[in-house]
Amino acid sequence: MELEQREGTMAAVGFEEFSAPPGSELALPPLFGGHILESELETEVEFVSGGLGGSGLRERDEEEEAARGRRRRQRELNRRKYQALGRRCREIEQVALNNCQALCKTL
Prior knowledge:
Elements: E1 27-31, E2 34-37, E3 47-48, E4 51-52, H1 54-106
Antiparallel strand pairs: 1-2, 3-4
């Protein structure tokens, strides 16, 4: 089902012409000159056998929020560890410097 494309109009093209190679994601017809893969579509709509799933969305939103919270807490913990390690390194450097200065005075 191909129609010739005229300036200012869009050509109708069959969906089967945009099929993806075996083993890859399903490719949808091109939009703005490129292919859209299912994984690139908005994830805010969940399709279930009965139609749109509302409770599934809430559960997924709650899971995503919990995951964001865990990542935020982990980043904060990592930041604190990094700061403590930096302080400890500066203390060790200072002790080493003091020891070197004391050793140099005895020579």
